[in-house]
# Entry
Amino acid sequence: MAAERSSKRTPARDVGGVASPVGGQPTGGAAPRVTPGNGVSAGVSEDASDGATALTREHRLELYYYMRLTRSLEERLVNLYRQTKVVGGLFRSLGQEADAVGSAYALDRSKGDVLSPLIRNLGSMLVQGAKPTEILRQYMAKGDSPTRGRELNIHYGDLVRGFVGQISHLGDMVPVMAGITLSFKLRGEDRVGLVYVGDGATSTGAFHEGLNFAAVQRCPLVVIVENNGYAYSTPIEKQTAARSFVVKAVGYGIVGERADGNDVVATYQATKRAVDRARAGGGVTLVELVTYRRKGHAEHDNQSYVPPGEIERWERENDPLDRYSRVLLERDGIGATELAAIDARVQSEIDTATDEAAASPMPEGRDALVGVYADPIAAEPLWYRSGVDAAVTTHERPAAWGTHDG
# Structure
């Protein structure tokens, strides 16, 4: 997958004179509100002759499949959540499917490229090979889930398929991926890493330290900043005084590019350029994807901090699936029956996966001990109570104290 593909990128949102890719200093003024239409096109991305980012007809349909699979799978999870069959929280990516799918699609799994997803990057994991059944089992804390019910949602990794389990969404995966990609460089491997962070994570020390280290070491790393408008409930204008997040690249001496994160093709193209640059020895690229989080931080979040009408406007004017469907139908010559067939395939796969996950057993108590110890691989139940009476049955004081039993 991720073979050679091409299209002209959608014009970047007006950021007060900052170009994309960025190479100059930011202009003054506070960050603008994330709203559809203030410079990021909600129209149709145009094709170009850039052979390095060319997309075949098959690739374009596959992008649609992964976007539809992401949204439909999360909709099924919402249904299960409301039936109390999901254990823990549910974190949606509604409105952000294009940025996760398009960016992950730019990696080359055949070369061993890896990514580090966050809680709203389900689409990227599906592109890398994660299956709906395992996602559902994870959320339902089943005993045959990838973590045997010991961790929830998409907090797991698979190095064979190329996604690293997250330890935190607060920027901590940037230094982790800096180290992983440094190992690629030191071993002379033709591999690239990609890490996602939210707009709020750019304010953390871990983000700064990891990005600075990766930049200095010229690691083959792509850093995706998902500008979705809010860090939980904090809007971007209260997160940074910069006009955009891409301008931060200048301070690290790396290339920065800003793209429309609701345009899956533009997202793919920008990320593919960054991946190709990293693979060629060009070091780190920071890619800001402008998108919008149409659901709260999790299902329990009522989004009372969002201005009235903002969510509805993004849904009406800038839904990534609606936009891409129009592109396929009106420009790429894809028939409505083809998209309907993909929709039916997705629905069938999710129905089958749901039945399989529902039939899976809950974990056994002893499962909590599997994989914790190297030898033996599992400890005996109540192991921590063994020998608790030693303090009263055996003297442990040195013989020199004159009270040694021997």
User: Anything to note?
Assistant: The radius of gyration is 24 Å. Residues 57-82 form the longest helix (26 residues). The domain at 5-364 is CATH 3.40.50.970 (Rossmann fold).
